[in-house]
Design brief:
- The complex is a heterodimer.
- By secondary structure, chain A is α/β, with parallel strands linked by helices.
- In chain A, a hairpin with a 2-residue loop joins strand 1 and strand 2 (29-39).
- In chain A, the strands form 2 sheets. Chain A has a 6-stranded mixed β-sheet with strand order 6-7-8-3-9-10, sandwiched between helices. Chain A has a 4-stranded antiparallel β-sheet with strand order 2-1-4-5, with helices on one face.
- The longest helix of chain A has 16 residues, at 180-195.
- The two termini of chain A are 29 Å apart.
- Chain A contains 10 helices and 10 strands.
- Helix content of chain A is 34%, strand content 25%.
- Chain B is mainly alpha-helical.
- In chain B, a hairpin with a 2-residue loop joins strand 1 and strand 2 (7-8).
- In chain B, helix 2 (47-65) packs parallel to helix 4, helix 2 (47-65) packs across helix 7 and helix 8 (226-241) packs across helix 9.
- The longest helix of chain B is centred in the first third of the chain and has 32 residues, at 9-40.
- The radius of gyration of chain B is 19 Å and the shape is globular.
- Classes of the chains: A alpha/beta, B mainly alpha.
């Protein structure tokens, strides 16, 4: 994996996800001012930035949850800007929202089975594989989804997307509010996804967590991209980053 | 003769039976309202009109196509469901992003329109609708006397209510519905065609009203205003049960039917208002309804 992250991004092939000049609005107020971002196949990309600079909005806009937007959103060289929301997942993008989005009125297993399969490409995980990886979910498969602990809910939120066969996963702050032990487990899980060939676009406040798994970083401020660099350039940028992130 | 609280047992069980029959309609109708409100957040004031439409569809199928009760019991709800789907696709859908009040006003207007149209073309008087021949007659036991058809209504309503509950709680499409009731946007982001789910849900809720209408036709006659007489009580039932609660709507439907029936025995003067008195008390003590979740 260290080898893969050292190669130039372009060597991975054409961009899987390509954002150019993405602008988005909540009602009358503009939230994104021309966001450019690439995710190459198999890459883990982390979007950094302080609270409220538009990281979550970037995910929600490229997904189509925020409908009022302009610019270029291409997935596998195809524009997905005009697709109805429910067609975007079928293009191959899985969404793991902030707050995890576990449904209280569904059992753990129903939560797991909820997202429809979008592709059978060898990247999808079977129910058996998921239960082998997360024995807790198997044990509690009949209890309501929200009875799980925060960490288990996060595992469930990621696992149910893995089952669908998407090739890009959007992860919004998966470590928020979780104990360090659980954060480590989620880190292991993301490395496993990467080994599986999945691309990941990660929004993360926990910089140390992101630094362990990402190949490339973007930094946002006030609804725009202010920096972009590979993991190899990280050491020289610590200071500037700390300033930009206000840590 | 056995007496309970100074009332002959047969009278008492008879009234419970009548209560159960009314409760069967309350349950079917408030169930449809609850399903629609749960997902669409639309207070479907046209529900009574769809109930009337179901009864009229059955009457017309018999009158113009010579179809009997049983085929109509299947076909009329399908027709009502199709009308519901058309209404949702072409009109109701445009109101989701606006204040909920618009959905309420729209469906109220639709109800007036449908009622007015049927009154214009078919007159205000009720059309007789015969119960199927094999269901005429009465079951008589020591405890209770029930016309066969009315017994059938209770059984059919219980079956449909239980079936709907199982559909929502135990099936894949039911899990889509429950999840979308919590967070429709996320379910759509997962790749579920939520706009279609909304159409199907509205159509299904309307079809439930349609079934109730066909079941009611032989008991109450088929008239353009049969729905507006019913809808006020149904809203009280839904409020008592808790807006959007499936089991709440079913249980409260039967319960209030029986309470209303028993009130006729013990204090007949209050029979027409007892449901509303209960509604007022529930609103005071548990604003979210007996089965609703406070939030």
């Amino acid at each position: 994996m260290t080898d893969a992250s050292a190669t130039p991004r372009e060597a991975r092939g054409p961009q899987q996800l390509k954002l150019r000049g993405l602008e988005a609005w909540y009602g009358e107020s503009q939230a994104l001012y021309g966001v450019d971002l690439d995710v190459y196949p198999g890459e883990t990309v982390t979007l950094l930035g302080r609270n409220g600079v538009g990281k979550t909005t970037t995910l929600r806009s490229l997904m189509g949850i925020v409908r009022k937007r302009t610019g270029t959103v291409e997935f596998d060289q195809r524009s997905i800007l005009r697709l109805p929301l429910h067609r975007v997942a079928h293009a191959g993008i899985g969404f793991v929202p902030e707050e995890r989005g576990i449904f209280a009125s569904l059992s753990v297993e129903e939560n797991l089975m909820l997202p429809p399969m979008v592709a059978r490409n060898g990247k999808e995980m079977s129910l058996d594989e998921i239960y082998t990886l997360f024995p807790n979910l198997l044990e509690r498969r009949h209890s309501p989804g929200t009875r799980l602990s925060g960490g288990e809910q996060q595992m469930l939120a990621i696992a149910r997307i893995l089952r669908t066969g998407v090739s890009l996963i959007l992860l919004d702050e998966p470590t928020e509010g979780l104990a360090p032990v659980i954060v480590n487990r989620i880190g292991e899980m993301l490395k496993a996804l990467k080994a599986h060939g999945l691309s990941v676009l990660l929004v993360e406040q926990n910089f140390r967590f992101a630094a362990r798994i990402a190949d490339h970083f973007y930094v946002m401020d006030q609804g725009a991209m202010i920096d972009s660099f590979a993991v190899a350039e990280l050491p020289g940028r610590r200071e500037a980053l700390n300033k930009a992130l206000g840590v | 003769m056995t007496m309970i609280f100074g009332v002959p047992l047969v009278v008492l069980t008879g009234q419970v039976m009548i209560g159960l029959i009314n409760g069967s309609f309350y349950a079917l109708l408030s169930l449809g309202l609850a399903v629609i409100f749960g997902l669409l957040r639309v207070v479907n004031f046209a529900h009574g009109a769809f109930y009337m439409l179901g009864a009229f569809a059955a009457w017309m199928l018999g009158q113009y196509l010579g179809l009997g009760y049983w085929p109509s019991l299947l076909l009329a709800p399908v027709l009502v469901g199709l009308v519901g789907a058309l209404v949702e696709r072409t009109m109701l859908r445009r109101l989701y992003d606006l204040d909920h009040l618009y959905g309420l006003l729209f469906t109220f207007g639709l109800a007036l329109l449908l009622e007015g149209a049927f009154q214009h073309f078919y007159g205000a008087s009720g059309k007789p609708f015969a119960a199927p021949a094999e269901m005429r007659g009465v079951i008589r036991t020591d405890f209770v006397t029930v016309p066969i058809y009315r017994g059938w209504v209770v059984v059919a309503s219980l079956l449909i209510c239980f079936g709907t509950w199982a559909l929502i709680e135990k099936t894949k499409i039911g899990s889509y519905l429950r999840a979308a009731t919590e967070d429709a946007t996320l379910v759509q982001a997962f790749g579920v065609n939520v706009p279609l789910l909304l159409t199907l849900t509205y159509a299904f809720g309307c079809a439930l009203a349609g079934v109730a209408g066909v079941l009611a036709a032989p008991i109450f006659q088929v008239s353009p205003t049969m729905g507006s007489n019913m809808i006020i009580i149904i809203f009280a039932v839904v409020v008592v049960g808790g807006m959007g609660s499936i089991l709440g709507a079913i249980a409260t439907g039967y319960l209030l039917g029986v309470v209303e029936g028993l009130t006729k025995v013990f204090y007949p003067e209050a029979a027409n208002i007892v449901i509303f008195v209960i509604m007022a008390i529930v609103l005071l003590l548990r604003p979210a309804g007996l089965f609703g979740k406070e939030n």
